[in-house]
Amino acid sequence: MLTEFLSTTGYANLTLGHVLMILIGIVFITLAICKDYEPLLLVPIGFGVIVGNIPYVDSMSLGVYDDWSGPSGLQGSSVLSFIYFGVKYGLFPPLIFLGIGAMTDFSTMLSNPKLVLLGAAAQVGVFLTFLGALFLGFSPEQAGAIGIIGGADGPTSIFLASKLAPHLLGAIAIAAYSYMALVPVIQPPIMRLLTTRKERLIHMAQPRHVSKRERMIFPVAAFLICALLAPGAMTLLGMLFFGNLLKESLVTDRLAQTARTALIDIVTILLGFAVGASTQADQFLKRESLLIFGLGAFSFAIATAGGVLFAKFMNLFLTEKINPLIGAAGVSAVPDSARVVQMVGQQEDPHNFLLMHAMAPNVAGVIGSAIAAGVLWSVLG
Question: Span 81-85, mean pLDDT?
Fold first, then answer.
């Protein structure tokens, strides 16, 4: 019995792959705690990676991919697979979007609608990465799921991967959230490389006041326009704009408060932990995963560059210039990209306040990435 017990321990079944993944989980937790890189995401994901890579004997059926068979013909799924259900079938991402909508203020975007174009321009990273993935031998469905990483939108990446490439979901989710957490590291060098000091010093006029009526009409009108354009984005955008309507209607404060606090916190915990637990060494440590990480970095860099360069292009036709730095906020890492724009701008001029202006392309990027996912799903699904 002692010998049999020892053969079932994690120590006896530990492989180099398990050790490597556990170390990656510890690195995620360390970055979250010591560097404050997206701690609300990296702590659950990092600990999930550790939990998902504790080895066990096959008969125990503990992992996210396992089912069990018991006495008298009883069958079921492991506890972790039940939690993973919300990731596998795309349940968690729309709930995240509901919370994002309930905490998002679209006023800056409505006050200066031309900045929406910067959120659209940043989506160039999605489609160029799609072509790059095809070139590297991925199928069209896999390439579409990989490309959406360029939107820097973890929930959208998970949602599209669950529809087009479920077997790559773990690698895509980890890549998307990793690059979201590294926004303060990746974006500033690209922003400085593509802009001159004179451009970084541009001051922008204060945005106009947006009325309550405009803010209440916007979520309904925007949903109809976007969903009719890309029906595949209906679920994500429906929850996003529904959450925003709860916030702006002023008669559903309790619902909006729940959506942007308790609900989004609970779903974030479950989603992050489940995504981390899905990175079992035998499923994750493959050539495909390394290519996905490389393509994700390329996609994110291209999306950042696309937003900045398009802002410079717009300035060729505008009398009232915009600061090209805000183009980097066209990726949908809300509000981290906008904060990075503010940080880089104030390094040049401490009196230059770009945060509110950067929030316009930032929230437009959320909409843009969801539409891009809807288009890819419609074409490739």
Answer: 89
